[in-house]
Amino acid sequence: MASTLYNQDFKPEISTNYEAGFDFRMFDNRIGVDFSFYYNRTKNQILDAPLDPTTKDTAAAINSGCVRNRGYELEITATPVLTRDFRWNTTLTWSKNDNKILSLAEGADENQVISTVGTASIIGRVGGTTGGYGATNWVRDPEGNVIIGDNGFRTSRRNRICKVQPMPTGKPDGIMSSLIKGFKIRNCLTDK
Question: In 3D, which of 189, 145, 150 has the Cα closest to residue 171?
Answer without folding.
Answer: 189
